[in-house]
Amino acid sequence: MNKSNENFLIVQNAIDMSRNDAFSVLEGEDETLKPLAFINIDEIKNDAEADLIMFHLTNHQSPTREACAHCILNAEGIDFIKSQSHIETLEDAICDINPNVCRAIISLIGSNERLAELIMPVNIKRIKKLLDDFKIYEKEFGACISNKMRNRKNHAKNKKLFNLYWCLEALGETVNDNCPYIDEIFEICSVTTYFLDYTIREKTAKILVKIPNAPKELLQKLKNDENFYVKNQVYDKICKDSSYRDTL
Description:
By secondary structure, the chain is an all-alpha fold. The protein has 14 helices and no strands.
């Protein structure tokens, strides 16, 4: 069988796949069919189905993880995603190497207040761990908060920077006026406001403008940032909120 015929049969199998067939595929080991199986799942009906779906959100091939993430984002029955294991898996998916997985999961938690509340302490804990890890790199590679970084191509360090970016993005999508972790978030932002990488400063600005009474010195620093995308986050808030305009 040539490749085109093989691809046709794969697509045909996906079209003809029932919901039961889809879960049977997920219980098997055919990674080629698993992304197609997720297309046929639009509802999570019990804890066992939630466990099986969440199992595929990490430690599988990229197409499977991405299809799984979009399935979770769009499916009914999200209330079955509730265990501590599920929340930790969602947190891992926020830092997936595939940005489409990250975006889908962040969109999910950003639109679901229950999941946002569950994942925030886990996410804050990971951010703090990442910031501690960066301190370890300072002696060898230079500080991440100055222009003295001697080696910007270190893979391990850049991976942590990638993870920090997405964790801050998730924090920015879930923080609100009633967040019980405001002091911890301000502590985080007091470090990330001064990061060399502008994308980290941009995500920090996005977080701070969503919190009433954010530290004025941090907002002022971001307002005067040399990068347009960073300062634009703060200026948007200034234009909408006169209380910020009066303090900056």
